[in-house]
C-alpha cells in the first residue's frame, strides 16, 4: 500500500508589506488550529511578489509575531520571490496553446490588477482592447492576459467546481462561463520586465506545489477562487477545499487592514497583551 497521504494541509500566506494586525492573527490562528485539530499540517508562505512593497523587516516581524502567538509551522517558509522565474516559465505552455495575449494597456491598470485585493475592489473587467494580439508582438513592459473565452473553450469538458466550507458561501460552487466572462474577464497573469506575476497565479501554483488540501483565508479573497480553479484546470493542478472566513472589523465595522497600525499585533504585544488575550479579542 502507498504511504499515508496528508489528509489536511493548510497554510498562512501573508504578504510582508506591513505589520500583522488582528485580522491576520485571526486567519493564522484559525488555519493553525484547524490543521492541528485534523491531525494535519500548517505551513507558512511569504507572498512577496510585489518587490516594491515587500520588505525583509516585515517578514521578520511576521515570523516574530506568529511565534509569539504560539503558532508553529511545518517545514521551511516558502518565499514567492524565489520562484518568479519558475512561475513565468510555467506560463509558456498556455501561450503555445493560444490562451494568452500581450497587452500594452496602462501601467496603473495592470498594477492594480496584479496586486492582492483591497476591500470593495473586485476585478475590473478588462474590455478586451488588446485581445487577439499575437504573442510575437509582445514588447518590453507588456502584460500577459488570459483569454478567458479561449480558456473556457479549452476546458469544455472540464468539471469546473470547488467545495467551500466557510460560513458565508458554504457548499459546492460551479464555475459558469457566462458569469465568469462577465465578472472576471481577461485577467493579467504577468508583466514582462518587472518580473511580476499575479498574486492569484503564484498562489495557485504554490498551493499545488505545497500539497495544500485546504485553503483557509479571508472572505475578501472569495472572488478570486473561480479564477484560481480555472488556472488549476489549465495547468492540470488539483483543486483544494476552500474555507473563506469572516473578516475582523473595528468598532465602526471597517475591516482592519495593514495600514491600521493601531491594530498591529506588535502594538498589543508592547502593551502587555498575551496571546490568549489576542485569541479572545478575535473570538477564538
Ligand atoms: N497573500 C494574500 C494576502 O495577504 C493571501 C493569499 C491567500 O491566502 O490565498 O492577503
TrEMBL record:
Keywords: Aminoacyl-tRNA synthetase, ATP-binding, Ligase, Metal-binding, Nucleotide-binding, Protein biosynthesis, Zinc
Domain Glutamyl/glutaminyl-tRNA synthetase class Ib catalytic positions: 9-112, 184-279
GO CC annotation terms, alphabetical: cytosol
Pfam families: tRNA-synt_1c
The protein's name in its UniProt record: tRNA glutamyl-Q(34) synthetase GluQRS
A single MF term (Gene Ontology): ATP binding
Organism name: Paragemmobacter straminiformis
UniProt-listed InterPro entries: aa-tRNA-synth_I_CS, Glu/Gln-tRNA-synth, Glu/Gln-tRNA-synth_Ib_cat-dom, GluQ/Sye, Rossmann-like_a/b/a_fold
Gene Ontology annotations of biological process type: glutamyl-tRNA aminoacylation
Family statement drawn from the similarity comment of this UniProt entry: Belongs to the class-I aminoacyl-tRNA synthetase family.
EC number: 6.1.1.-
Amino acid at each position: 500500500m502507498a504511504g499515508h497521504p496528508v489528509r489536511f494541509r493548510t497554510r498562512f500566506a501573508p504578504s510582508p508589506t506591513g505589520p500583522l494586525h488582528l485580522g491576520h492573527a485571526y486567519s493564522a490562528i484559525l488555519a493553525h488550529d484547524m490543521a492541528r485539530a485534523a491531525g494535519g499540517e500548517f505551513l507558512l508562505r511569504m507572498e512577496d511578489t510585489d518587490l516594491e512593497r515587500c520588505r525583509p523587516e516585515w517578514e521578520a516581524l511576521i515570523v516574530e509575531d506568529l511565534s509569539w502567538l504560539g503558532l508553529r509551522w511545518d517545514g521551511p517558509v516558502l518565499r514567492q520571490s524565489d520562484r518568479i522565474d519558475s512561475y513565468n516559465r510555467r506560463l509558456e505552455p498556455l501561450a503555445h496553446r493560444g490562451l494568452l495575449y500581450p497587452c500594452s494597456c496602462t501601467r496603473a491598470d495592470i498594477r492594480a490588477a496584479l496586486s492582492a485585493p483591497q476591500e470593495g475592489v473586485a476585478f475590473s473587467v478588462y474590455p478586451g482592447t488588446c485581445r487577439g494580439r499575437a504573442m510575437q508582438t509582445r514588447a518590453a513592459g507588456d502584460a500577459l492576459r488570459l483569454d478567458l473565452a479561449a480558456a473556457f473553450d479549452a476546458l469544455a469538458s472540464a468539471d469546473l467546481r470547488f467545495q467551500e466550507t466557510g460560513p458565508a458561501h458554504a457548499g459546492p460552487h460551479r464555475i459558469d462561463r457566462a458569469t465568469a466572462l462577465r465578472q472576471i474577464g481577461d485577467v493579467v497573469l504577468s508583466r514582462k520586465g518587472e518580473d511580476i506575476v499575479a498574486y492569484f497565479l503564484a498562489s495557485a501554483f504554490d498551493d499545488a506545489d505545497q500539497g495544500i488540501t485546504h485553503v483557509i483565508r479571508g472572505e475578501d479573497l472569495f472572488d478570486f477562487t473561480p479564477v484560481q480553479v480555472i488556472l488549476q484546470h489549465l495547468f492540470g493542478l488539483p483543486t483544494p477545499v476552500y474555507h473563506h472566513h469572516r473578516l475582523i472589523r473595528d468598532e465602526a465595522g471597517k475591516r482592519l487592514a495593514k495600514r491600521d497600525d493601531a491594530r498591529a499585533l506588535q502594538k498589543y504585544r508592547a502593551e502587555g497583551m498575551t496571546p490568549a488575550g489576542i485569541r479572545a479579542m478575535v473570538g477564538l
